[in-house]
Design brief:
single chain, about 450 residues, alpha+beta, Chloramphenicol Acetyltransferase, 2 domains, six-stranded mixed sheet, four-stranded mixed sheet, 11 helices, Alcohol_O-acetyltransferase, Phthiocerol/phthiodiolone dimycocerosyl transferase, EC 2.3.1.282, CAT-like_dom_sf
Length: about 450
């Protein structure tokens, strides 16, 4: 594959959305110890050496046939911010969620929020942001890990191994999962099934115009003891942790929009499909490898966490078995708008008619070192901006014996107080675990 290529259908969708509202994903990690600006700049250069996509931008060709193309002077800018108040990193993360990229000039940037500088307690919150046009959450975490490792390396370390350009995920989907009629049938049945269930959405999307939507983040953490208890209870009840998370979110939607009454909530769940592609990309490769499957979960007085979790798991298992996630991704080529004008109309229609507006993006347990050189590493966090369809993304990552949950909400669809209250309802539902799933 050449360094210059047209955007794949999935990349083009995110690019079209990004032209209306920022579409970013950010990862944050805390480094305990002294970190110099030069170390981070050297690490950024190493990432540029390794990943062709990070040396590229999107050339829009006047809105027609946009393409990935090398940037003449590629750079991952590094900005250092002194922490002037507690929680300064969260203010920086909120800014990253809301700040679009000049995609023609590059698709990644780094923020270093430094606290207690020049003291024995110095620490740095490193925030890596990559445009969603080229990267999903797992890709982001892989690059963030490499950023830390490259920053800790000696200046005369071995040169970075350069990666060859790889095809986008759309081109690697097995032939048996492709085809217009398969995509059309699955899309139609999903829409009909969703509408028959009459799901309730969280907040009113139309109150905030697409171009004015900006994402803010409410941060919560499950510590080691609570996380281990949750994992053990999920095993006993034969459900996945993701099922419990999505089930708790569905029940919290009911608690918010229709308390004390029965109903249905729609939840989107990205499904990582790297291992199903041919050939399968490397685990550390950058790309979009997680199409979304929607599930519909009952809430109300008669529903429990385990019933909701089992429903999520069964629907996801069935969707994966039917290869719906593959068909969804491959089918984007049939419905991708050709112009920005048609894209806006399509996005507005999807945004208005979608049967769900909350997703749970759970990256699961991410292998991230607890120490690199003399540095101690902690507080891995994940965030994703919302645009059309989604009013709230619950971005979840587990590492360092804790689970971080980022409730990434559209400011105005929910207020800050409503987002805080919703996050607390989700955690309360996760804690309310009956001894059996019935």
């Amino acid at each position: 594959m050449q360094d210059t290529r047209p955007l794949s259908p999935s990349e083009r969708w995110f690019w079209l959305i990004d032209n209306i509202s920022p579409s970013n994903c950010s990862g944050r990690v805390r480094i305990h110890g002294r970190v110099t600006l030069r170390q981070l700049e050297r690490a950024a250069d190493a990432l540029l050496d390794e990943y062709p996509l990070l040396r590229s931008g999107v050339r829009d060709m006047h809105g027609s046939n946009p393409e990935i193309a090398p940037v003449p002077d590629p750079e991952i800018p590094v900005f250092r911010l002194p922490a002037r108040a507690s929680g300064a990193w969260l203010h920086a993360l909120n800014s990253e969620m809301a700040t679009p990229f000049e995609v023609g000039e590059g698709l990644a940037r780094i923020i270093d929020v430094v606290s207690r500088e020049d003291t024995s307690g110095e620490y740095h919150d490193i925030i890596l942001t990559i445009s969603h046009v080229i990267a999903d959450g797992r890709s982001l975490m892989a690059v963030l890990r490499k950023l830390v490792e490259y920053a800790a390396a000696e200046p005369d370390a071995e040169p970075v191994a350069k990666r060859a350009p790889v095809p986008p995920a759309d081109d690697l989907i097995p032939q048996g999962a492709r085809g217009f009629w398969r995509y059309a049938y699955l899309t139609l049945t999903d829409q009909v099934s969703g509408r028959l269930r009459k799901p309730r959405r969280l907040g009113e999307m139309s109150v905030v115009p697409l171009e004015e939507r900006r994402t803010r983040v409410v941060h919560r953490v499950l510590d080691g003891a609570r996380l281990r208890a949750l994992v053990e209870d999920c095993k006993k009840s034969e459900v996945s942790v993701h099922g419990a998370l999505a089930g708790a979110v569905a029940l919290a939607i009911g608690d918010t929009v229709n308390p004390g009454a029965p109903g249905v909530a729609g939840i989107g769940s990205p499904v990582d499909f790297r291992d199903e592609l041919d050939p399968a990309p490397d685990a550390d490769e950058i790309g979009i490898y997680a199409p979304v499957l929607a599930g519909f979960v009952k809430f109300g007085p008669a529903e429990s966490l385990w019933k909701a979790a089992r429903s999520v798991k069964q629907q996801l298992d069935r969707g994966v078995k039917q290869r719906r996630h593959l068909a969804t991704m491959s089918g984007m080529r049939y419905g991708t708008p050709k112009t920005m004008e048609s894209a806006r109309k399509t996005i507005e229609m999807v945004d208005r008619r979608a049967t769900w507006n909350v997703s749970v993006t759970n990256l699961g347990r991410v292998e991230f070192p607890v120490a690199v050189g003399s540095w101690q590493i902690s507080d891995l966090t994940f965030g994703a901006s919302n645009s059309c369809v989604s009013g709230l993304t619950v971005a979840v990552v587990t590492a360092h014996d804790e689970m971080a949950l980022g409730f990434c909400y559209v400011d105005g669809v929910l207020s800050a107080g409503e987002a805080e209250a919703f996050a607390d309802r989700v955690l309360a539902r996760l804690e309310d675990r009956p001894e059996s799933w019935a």
